[in-house]
Write a structure and sequence with these properties.
- The strands form three sheets. Strands 2-1-3-4 form a four-stranded parallel β-sheet, sandwiched between helices.
- Helix content is 44%, strand content 16%.
- It has 276 residues and is of the alpha/beta class.
Length: 276
């Protein structure tokens, strides 16, 4: 194994556990971990490998998601830092990418492979789904789980052909205009932005069952119910965005004001219409 080791993770939730694992293994955290903070299962991907595309993605997220905690600007800034750090990885380094069988991490993995495609590196995949199949992201695992994988996993680097193939898959993804992706049959599938709408409607119908027809369900309760039954990580802000679209279309009725999910509640406008 090469002397210089880089770990790459997707999403801030994985940072703490990997940092702890690296600290206990004696590796230098500051130089060995790159975290891409974006949620790659949602949002546009066109030209993301250049600044123009990343700015366009940021603008789309600002337009469509409720940035109630003013985090999107910070995420954009950290994403820029991460892309810069990727370009500075030492030649002949060993690179470990933490991923799982989810659209978010698998899309991010292909993005990184594209950025690193011309570098002479030993690249390894550590697939959390292989060991912990019921997790929705690597960030759900603690440092002990990650250390077990790191020490016991198959330490066989990808071939040049495998790396090229993943970089080419990224190029293909960027040719699509979809803003929502799922992991299906071992591949990333681009779907329409309303892909989960019927699922959201069904969950609201379940929550309203055995309640008075006039009862409104608070938005965080509905979002929690949806997230709890999804296999993909798409973020509560995206679900809130779809709920607001269902209100706009007249499928849901709203009580309150939509300045944030905790400020409004919803109910089905015509319950009988969606019983099928």
């Amino acid at each position: 194994m090469q002397n210089y080791v880089v770990h790459i993770a997707f999403g801030e939730s994985a940072r703490g556990s990997i940092n702890m694992m690296l600290k206990q293994s004696g590796e230098t955290q500051e130089k060995s971990l790159i975290v891409l903070p974006e949620l790659f299962s949602i949002g546009p991907l066109q030209k993301l490998e250049v600044k123009e595309g990343r700015v366009n993605r940021y603008q789309w997220l600002k337009t469509h998601l409720n940035d109630r905690f003013h985090e999107l600007g910070e995420i954009y800034s950290r994403f820029e830092d991460a892309v810069s750090a990727l370009s500075r990885i030492h030649e002949q380094a060993s690179v470990f990418m933490w991923t799982g069988d989810h659209a978010h991490e698998q899309t991010g993995l292909r993005f990184v492979h594209y950025i690193l495609r011309q570098m002479n590196l030993a690249v390894f995949h550590l697939n959390t789904s292989k060991y912990f199949p019921h997790t929705r992201s690597s960030g759900e695992l603690n440092d002990e789980n990650l250390r077990f994988m790191y020490e016991q996993g198959d330490q066989v680097p990808l071939t040049d052909a495998e790396r090229r193939s993943l970089a080419e898959e990224w190029t293909a993804l960027t040719q699509q205009t979809s803003v929502l992706r799922v992991w299906e049959d071992g591949r990333i599938k681009s779907v329409k932005e309303d892909f989960y709408d019927s699922f959201i409607i069904g969950k609201l119908a379940q929550l309203q069952k055995n309640r008075a027809a006039s009862t409104f369900i608070n938005c965080p309760r509905l979002i929690g119910e949806v997230i709890g039954h999804l296999e993909e990580n798409i973020g509560d802000e995206y679900i809130e965005y779809r709920i607001l679209e269902l209100i706009r279309k007249g499928i849901f009725e709203m009580e309150g004001v939509p300045k944030g999910m905790r400020y409004f509640s919803v109910r089905l406008k015509s319950p009988c219409k969606f019983t099928s």
